[in-house]
Amino acid sequence: MIDTASELIVPARRAFLSGTSKVALSAAAVLLLAGKDSLAQSMGGPMAADVGILNVALGLEYEAINAYQLGAQSGLLQKPVLDVAVKFQGDHKGHRDALIATIEKMGGKPVEEKKLDDYAKVLKADTLKSQADVLDLAARLEIGATNAYLGVIPTLKDAQLAKVAARLAADETMHWTVLNSALSRSLPSDALPFGA
Q: What CATH number was assigned to the domain covering residues 9-182?
C-alpha cells in the first residue's frame, strides 16, 4: 500500500492541485469545454496559458485512465468492482476527449499520453497487492482531480462557466464517494471536505 498521495504526484500536478501555479482557465476556455464554440470565439484574447492549464488537466485524466487500466489488468479486482472501475475509466476517457477537442479548438497541441509502463512506475503499481490497494490508489487520484477542478471555480465570474467546472468536479466526487464506500470508509467527519 502506498503511504501518501504526495508520493504519486509529479511537480506540475502538485502545483496545479495546490493552487501554487497561480493560473486559471479563461472564460473562453471553459466555454469551449462546454461546447459553446461560437460564444468562446467572440470573447477573443490569448489562450496560450489556458492551453497549458488544460494540458495539465489532460495529464490528470491520462493518469486516471491508466490507473484504472492497471487495476483492471492486475487481476486483483473482483467482478462487480471491476465493472465499476471500467465505468469510471470510461468517464475519464470522456473527460480526456473533451479536453483534447478544446485544446485543439484553441489552436493548441494536446499533451501526449505516456506508455502504460510509465504510469505503472509513477503510480507504483508493483506495490498493489489487493483489491483494497487498487481502490485506495483510485480514491486518492479521484480526490486530487476533484480538488483540481474545484480550484478553477473561484476564478470564474460567470455562473454558467462555473457550472461546467462544477460538473467535472461532481463527476470526480461521485467516483471518490463510491470508491470510499467500497473500501468501507466512513464519510468525512468535517463539513466542506472538498476543495481545501
A: 1.20.1260.10
